[in-house]
Design brief:
single chain; about 210 residues; Alpha-Beta Plaits; six-stranded mixed beta sheet
């Protein structure tokens, strides 16, 4: 990894990579907010360069991380930073990225757990908890009766074991977001089928993050 810190540098790169993967393409503009420990140390520990590098889809050991500002500028990425040092409701190592890509805007919250490990804890206001270390599917759908059982049944037909699952909804019979980490990959045909369901609004599929 490019240091100095596995939590404040390598972990932040992975949060940026995960956020870009959830967005589904290049990040054109982004507002980055560091909280608590990150807010107090992000410049000295290189978390600012790390998040830009991750949003550019770089690995944790990429030598370009030291010049991430220049590369972000050359790629036309617009970025701003904000620091909130005393947020009692946030994990000590929290970063929120509010991104705009080619076709949509998205907000993602991630935390660095130490040793380069991360958790993505919120997407567009929906709480979740996944590591981005396994194939992951994120489904936004109408909260119709039986939808959870139906989707898990579809996934099971790919002989795919669900390792973790988080379901969050705005209100009963409104919108729900389901996040599933899986031991193996889903077939493209299965993803196409899920996207074609009338009550499914969006399906994002992420491979495990590569270092």
């Amino acid at each position: 990894m490019i240091g100095p810190s596995s939590s404040h540098t390598a972990g932040v790169v992975r949060i940026g990579k995960a956020a870009r993967a959830i967005l589904g393409g290049p990040v054109r503009s982004v507002a980055i907010t560091f909280y608590n420990s990150f807010a107090r140390t992000y410049e000295g520990h290189g978390s600012d360069r790390a998040i830009l590098g991750g949003l550019l889809d770089w690995a944790t050991d990429d030598d370009r991380l030291r010049e991430a500002y220049r590369h972000a500028d050359e790629n036309g990425m617009k970025y701003t930073f904000k620091a909130i040092p005393n947020a009692s409701d946030r994990h000590p190592n929290t970063v929120v990225v509010d991104m705009t890509g080619d076709t949509r805007s998205l907000s993602v919250e991630g935390i660095s757990r130490g040793g380069g490990l991360i958790s993505i804890t919120e997407i567009e206001g929906f709480r979740c908890n996944f590591s981005a270390q396994m194939p992951t599917i994120i489904i936004t759908a109408k909260d119709v009766q039986g939808s959870l059982a139906f989707i898990t049944d579809v996934v099971s037909h790919d002989d795919c074991n669900i390792a973790t699952m988080t379901v969050n909804r705005t209100a009963r019979n409104d919108t729900a977001k389901m996040v599933m980490e899986m031991d193996t990959h889903l077939r493209p045909l299965t993803l196409e089928y899920l996207r074609a369901l009338s009550w499914v609004k969006d399906v994002t599929y992420m491979d495990a993050l590569a270092d």
